Amino acid sequence: MPRISEELWAERRRHVLTSAWGCFARDGFHAASMDQIIGATGLSSSAVYRYFRSKDELIDATAAEALELIGSLFDRLLAAEPTPTPDETVAVLVEDLHSRGEQEGYDLSQLAMQAWTEALRRPHLHELVNAYYRSTRANFAELARRWQVAGYLAPDADIDAVAALLTTLMPGLIVLEHLGDGSSAQQLIAGISGFASASSLRDGARGRNPV
Fold first, then answer.
1. Half-sphere exposure (CA, 13 Å, Cβ side) for 132?
2. pLDDT by residue (tens digit) across 84-94?
3. Strand pairing partners for 106?
4. Count of C-beta atoms within a 10 Å radius of residue 179
5. Which of 59, 61, 119, 188 would you call most buried, defined as having the most Cβ atoms within 10 angstroms of its Cβ?
């Protein structure tokens, strides 16, 4: 196939997908119909089905892209020189979510939330989401190792535990952005620091009063 044809095919497929995102953002995966999506594209039904054979295929592609977009943030964090500090990393996570906003009537982080619920009933999507969180945890672990070398974390800090905490934080950020009042980076940094201080005080008390 000539290159221009490949580019045109990819462009039209992308148009169908982004048209579906607007429908999914407005009505949800299940309430949005293929007729609505086809109408949003401005194409014929046969043209739309040339790129996606069903709504499930559109949902799968949406989930994959939403998770990839969120995951691409780690590529930037890990490539930065020097590695961002823990506080800077939290600030980047929050700012990325705040600044994404709605693009042409959709926000992929909001669609990621829908993908989570869809993953509860569809095994292959469950594996996709599970793989994303395994990757996220591994990326946080790598950042934590670098923080430990740089002196931001104690030499005896549990790298896997730090990664688990930050991985758990990610979905909460997205939920609060769309269903709550959001969270500021300053609040989260203060909260993490306060929690760490509480744990240190607890361990210190145990050291003074062995049981």
1. 24
2. 999 999 888 88
3. 103
4. 10
5. 59
CA 200 vs CA 10, 183, 197: distances in Å: 54, 25, 5
| DSSP at 84 | P
If one compares 98 and 147, the residue with the highest pLDDT of the two is 147
Distance in angstroms (rounded) separating the CA atoms of residues 40 and 21: 10
Let me know: does 157 contact 95? Beta carbons within 8 Å.
no
Asked if 132 and 67 count as a contact pair (C-beta separation under 8 A), the reply is: yes
pLDDT tens column, 154-208: 999 999 999 999 999 888 888 887 887 777 778 887 887 777 666 554 555 555 5
Measuring CA to CA, which residue among 92, 96, 102 is closest to residue 69?
A: 96
DSSP 44-73: -HHHHHHH-SSHHHHHHHHHHHHHHHHHHH
Span 51-60, average pLDDT: 95
Check pLDDT > 70 for residue 104: no
pLDDT band at 147 (very low <50, low <70, confident <90, very high): very high
Which H, E and C letters describe 131-182, residue by residue? Answer: HHHHHHHHHHHHHHHHHHHHCCCCCCCCHHHHHHHHHHHHHHHHHHHHHCCC
- Check the CA dihedral 60-131-111-102 and report its sign: negative
The residue among 207 and 40 whose pLDDT is bigger is: 40
The whole-angstrom separation of Cα 8 and Cα 159 is: 46
The amino acid that residue 60 corresponds to is D
